[in-house]
Amino acid sequence: MEKEISLLHMNARSGIITRIEGGHGMKTHLACLGIRVNKCISKVSSQPFRGPVVVEVDGKQVAMGRGMCRKIFVEVE
Amino acid sequence: MKVLLMGNPNVGKSVVFSRLTGVHVVSSNYPGTTVEFTLGAAHIGGEKAEIIDVPGTYSLDPTCKAEEVALEMMHEESPDMIVNVVDATALERNLYLTLQLLEEDVPIIVILNMWDAAERKGISIDVERLSRILGVKVIPTVAVTGIGIKELVDTLSHAPTPSIHHPRLSDERWAYIGEIIKKAQKIRHKHPSLGERLEDASIRPLTGIPLAAIFIVLCFYAVQFMGEGLISLIDPLFENYYNPFIVSVIEQIIPSGSVHDLLVGTTSEITESFGLLTTGIYVPLAMVLPYVVSFYFILGILEDVGYLPRLAVLVDTVMHRIGLHGSSIICMILGLGCNVPGVLSTRILETRRERFIAATLMAVSVPCMAQNAVIIGLVGAHGMVYVGMVYITLFCVYIGVGRFLNRVLKGESPELFLEIPDYHLPHLPVLLKKTGMRVRGFIMEAIPFVLLGIFIINVLYLLGIITFMADICAPFLERILGLPRDAIVALMIGFLRKDVALGMLEPLNLFPHQLVVASTVLTLYFPCVATFIILLKELGIRDTGKSVVIMIATAVGVGGLLRVVLEVIP
C-alpha cells in the first residue's frame, strides 16, 4: 500500500484521491468539479508565495487555494 | 409556456439563450458571466414561450449568490420545462446537476453543448444510449454556430416528464454517474494540441507571468490604437461638417438668446461650447465611443478565449493582500469598461465582505471607459507622462484603500476556487454581436445622461447657482486642491456623468498638474449616478454609506497630497 499524502505535498505529477476532509457543501462542490475519491488528479502548476495550485481531473483544470489542497489526500504510485 | 435554461457554469447557456430568443446577452468563456437571470421570448410549436437564462450552478446546493439566484428561479418560477445545458467535454461532472434536475418532476431536455470541442478532444458520447439511461431526450449542439438548435426547438413542445428513478444520495449518485459514463462515453487519447500547451504555459508562474505582462501591454496598445484610429475617422466629421452645419442651422432659426446658447453654446469650439447639440453630441460620440468600441472588442476577445481566469490565478497572491482573491480581477477589468456591470459581476465573489471591498475599490479607483477616454484625450494632450501620473495615483489608491479595508474589516478573504476553462478560438459573429450589444448599451445610457448633464449645467449657470456654489467651495478648492473656483462645475456634474465633468475642465485652461489633480479627484470622489444606484442595490444603504465616506475621504486626502507633491516637484 502506498503512502497517503496531502495534495499540497504531492511532488509527483499525479496521484489517486483517497480521502477529502471537509463539510458536505465543500465535498459536493469539489465533486461537481470532478474532484472525488478514486479520481486521478494531477498538478499543473503552483503559484509562488503560497499562491493557488492548479490541478487537472478528467482533462479539466481547477484552481484552488493551498488550504483546500491540504484537505485533499492522494496516493502516489 | 415557461422554459428555464439550467446547467453548470460556463457551458454556454447564454449562447443557447441567444439562439432561441434572438435576444443577445453577454456570454464569455469563463464561469459566472451570467449573474442575473435574463428573460426572452421564443415561438415554439406555434406557441409563445418565455425562455429564462439562469446563472450557472454546479448543483442545487448553492455556494454563492449567483447560484442562489439559480435555485430561487427554479422554485419560484415553476417552469413548464427545463433545458439542461451540459458541457459535452465534461459530461461526468455535469451529470450530477442533471440527475438532481431529473428529480424535479418537470419535463426536461438535456443538450450536450460544445459537441465540436468534445470531438476535437477525442471524446465520443453515445447519445442514444445516454438518452435511454436518463429517460429523457438528449440532443448534441454547438450553440455558437447553431448546430442542433432546430432539433431542440422542435422537441421542446412535447418533451416528457422524466419517469425513470435514479439514486438520490450523493455518493450513490456519483457511483451511478460513473456507470453511465462507462456505458455512454469513450475517450481516445490524443497528443496535447498547441492550444493545450499554451493553456499550461499561461498558468505556470515561470512562463505565465511574462505572458500575462505581454498580453496586458498588447491589449493596452490595441485598445489605444483602435480607439485613436476611430477618433481620427470620426473627429473630422464633427469638426468639419457636423458642427458648422448645426451651428448655422440653429442660428437661422434662433439667432441669439438663452435657447440658442443652450443648444449650441457661445463659442464655436465644439469641445468648449457646452451646447446640447454641439458638445452634448460630440463628447459621447466622438470622444468616448471610439474607446468604448475598442475596449469592448478587445475585452470580448480576452473573455471568449478564456484567458481571464488564468490571469485571476496569477494575481491571486497579490489580491489576497487587499482582502480579495484572484477572481475579483475579472470584476475590475469589467469595471474599466463601465462600473455598473463591474459592480454587478462582484456577485461571483463568495462573501459579503469581499463584495463590499471589490465594489468600493471599483467605485473609488477604477475609472470607466468614458472617463478613460476623456482623461487620455484631455490630460494626454499635455503629454502621456501626466496620464501616467493619474493612473499611478489611482493604482496606489486601489492598493492602499484595499489594504486599509482588509485590515479594518473583520473576517478573512476566502481562497480562490475557480474552474479554468479550455481555450477557445473566439467565434467572430458572436464576438461582434457582444461588442455591438455593449456599445449599444453605452449609447443608450450615455447620450440621455450627457444631454441631461449639459442641460443642468446650463440651467445652473442661468440661475446663478454655480457662482453661488463656487463662492462656497472656493476656499476648499483653492487651498486644498489648488484648483480654480470654476472647477466646482465639474465636481457638481461629476455626480451625473464623469465624461462631461472631465470635459468641463477643458475651458478652464488648467495647468497640466492641476488637470492631473482634477482628473484624479473626479475619479475618486463619487461614482456616477448609475453606479451609485447599483451600489445601493447590491450593498444596501448602510454599506453604500460607508463606501461613500471612504470615497470622499480618499478624494480629499489623495487630491490634497497629490497637489502638494506635484507643486514641490517642478
Structure summary:
The complex is a heterodimer of chains A (77) and B (570). By secondary structure, chain A is an alpha+beta fold. Chain A contains 2 helices and 6 strands; from the N terminus they run ββαβββαβ.
Write the layout of secondary structure elements.
The complex is a heterodimer of chains A (77) and B (570).
Chain A: E1 4-6, E2 14-20, H1 24-32, E3 40-46, E4 53-57, E5 60-64, H2 66-70, E6 72-75
Antiparallel strand pairs in A: 1-6, 2-3, 2-6, 3-4, 4-5
Chain B: E1 2-7, H1 13-21, E2 38-44, E3 47-53, H2 65-76, E4 81-87, H3 91-102, E5 108-113, H4 115-120, E6 123-125, H5 127-134, E7 137-140, H6 149-156, H7 170-184, E8 185-187, H8 194-201, H9 205-253, H10 258-264, H11 279-305, H12 308-321, H13 328-337, H14 339-345, H15 352-365, H16 369-378, H17 384-408, E9 417-420, H18 428-463, H19 465-481, H20 488-493, H21 498-505, H22 512-525, H23 529-568
Parallel strand pairs in B: 1-3, 1-4, 4-5, 5-7
Antiparallel strand pairs in B: 2-3, 6-8
Main sheet record of chain B: 6 strands, mixed
Uncertain residue ranges of chain B: none
Provide the residue-averaged pLDDT of chain A.
Answer: 88
Strand order of the largest sheet of chain B: 2-3-1-4-5-7
- Radius of gyration over C-alpha positions of chain B, nearest whole angstrom: 26 Å
| Anisotropy-based shape of chain B | elongated
Task: Give the beta-strand count of chain B.
Answer: 9
